Amino acid sequence: MRQVVSVLVRNHPGVLSHVAGLFTRRAYNIESIAAGVTERPEVTRITLVVSGDETVVEQVIKQLRKLIDVIGVIDLKYSQAVTRELILMTVFLSAEKRVEFIQIATSIEARIVDISDQTATIEFSGNERQIHTVLMALGGFKIKEMARTGLIALPIESVGIGKEFLV
Amino acid sequence: MRQVVSVLVRNHPGVLSHVAGLFTRRAYNIESIAAGVTERPEVTRITLVVSGDETVVEQVIKQLRKLIDVIGVIDLKYSQAVTRELILMTVFLSAEKRVEFIQIATSIEARIVDISDQTATIEFSGNERQIHTVLMALGGFKIKEMARTGLIALPIESVGIGKEFLV
After folding, report:
1. Which chain B positions have a beta carbon within 8 Å of A134's beta carbon?
2. Which of A28, A66, B41, B95 is deepest in the core (most CB within 10 A)?
3. Is B167 among the domain residues?
4. What's the pTM value of the predicted model, to 2 decimals?
5. Which of A33, A51, A76 is the last residue of a domain?
6. How far apart are CA B55 and CA B60, in angstroms?
7. Which residues contact B30 (CB under 8 A, 6 or more apart)?
8. Residue A36 and residue B32: Cβ atoms within 8 Å?
9. B30: contact with A, CB 8 A cutoff
10. Which pLDDT belongs to residue B52?
11. C-alpha pair distances (Å), B118 with each of A148, A158, B95, B143
12. Residues A109, A48: one domain?
């Protein structure tokens, strides 16, 4: 099962590798990780997408809560969360394909951030379904390089509250 | 000095905490980390923003290149890179402030992704300067929760190539 786990930590050196290490020591696969400061500069939010056995993730969350630099752990259910990811992608682009590429990029609300004589770089964001659609729409172009942020997530306020456990 | 380091790794358990650990063991502060799969499903790109002594980061990069699961390390200069970050932010919002909030959000090209009777959640992306501008523009609203992806980066193809070192 895939789960989104959001961990609030104090900005101390080592806390990031410590959190990641707790999952990997249990042979839990981390699909993506995104970490950035929050509205409180001394606090970082780490969002992990993990896959594996559900009971194991519950055990890892219990261990996370015992770490001195962990302020809170939120086990976000997909149905109760706004999830978003950002992608930068550079594709090879010949001159005769440029108009087609720009039309597709515009239709999927991707922003073109760089164009050279042989490439184009675009930026786009969305939930997993939207990202999948964009990647399919651009399937005809050869990717030179791609960088993904990994998912971030917040609880949906309008329909319910995520299961929030404060340590 | 702040540097953006992009590391291509094979998707093996433990490689992420190993990479993060190399920086923190040298007391190097990781400002943000973003990791997601690339166009090759077996390869993950880890983008780190680190601050500290420049010679130390060169040493860490040398050590990274020796790791068996590290395919390549790119030391991206800001001036030669497209850098982007994505933010999800939920603010407290009273009914009488709603029009003002929507006007500001529209003017800064932020997408409103959720509205409840007391809150609004928006999504926006940009480079560091643009993110700073949005945070300033929304400074009058009390933040309930914020999640940031951390920066991702690709070389600017139109003006030059990032210093790319393949292991």
Report:
1. none
2. A28
3. no
4. 0.87
5. A76
6. 9
7. A13, A16, A35, B20, B23, B24, B48, B49, B50
8. yes
9. yes
10. 76
11. 32, 9, 8, 12
12. no
Q: In chain B, which stretches have pLDDT less than 70?
A: 27-28, 159-167
Choose among B14, B25, B33: nearest Cβ to A16.
Answer: B33
B69 and B95 part of one domain: no
pLDDT at A29 over 90: no
Residues A44 and A16 in one domain: yes
Label residue A163 by pLDDT band (50, 70, 90): very low
Q: CB contact, 8 Å: A34 with chain B? A: yes
Task: List the CATH number of the domain containing A33.
Answer: 3.30.70.260
pLDDT tens, residue by residue, A100-130: 999 999 988 899 999 998 999 999 999 999 9
The answer to whether the Cα torsion of A76, A78, A84, A86 is positive or negative is positive
Number of H helices, E strands in chain B: 4, 10
Check whether residue A63 and residue A127 sit in a common domain.
no
In a domain, B160, yes or no: no
Task: Specify the pLDDT at position A161.
Answer: 46
- Say if residue A15 is in the same domain as residue A64: yes
- Sign of the C-alpha dihedral, residues B24, B28, B29, B30? negative
Tell me whether residues B16 and A37 touch, CB distance under 8 A.
Answer: no
Q: Is the torsion defined by CA of A32, B5, A43, A63 positive or negative? A: positive
pLDDT value, residue A54: 81
Query: Taking CB atoms and an 8 Å limit, are A32 and B36 in contact across chains?
Result: yes
If pLDDT is split at 50, 70 and 90, which confidence band does A57 have?
confident
pLDDT band at A47 (very low <50, low <70, confident <90, very high): very high
Mean pLDDT of A42-61: 87
Question: What are the pLDDT digits (tens) for B45-58?
Answer: 999 988 878 888 88
Higher pLDDT, B82 or A75: B82
Cα dihedral sign, B19-A67-B88-B11: positive
Question: Which residue on chain B is closest to A143 by alpha carbon?
Answer: B39
Q: Is any Cβ of chain A less than 8 angstroms from the Cβ of B88? A: yes
Give the residue numbers spanning the domain of A39.
2-76
Tokens of A71: 């302020």
For residues B70 and B10, membership in a common domain is answered with yes
Where a domain ends, among B40, B58, B76? B76
* A167 in a structural domain: no
CB contact under 8 A, A24 and B39: no
| Domain contains A37 | yes
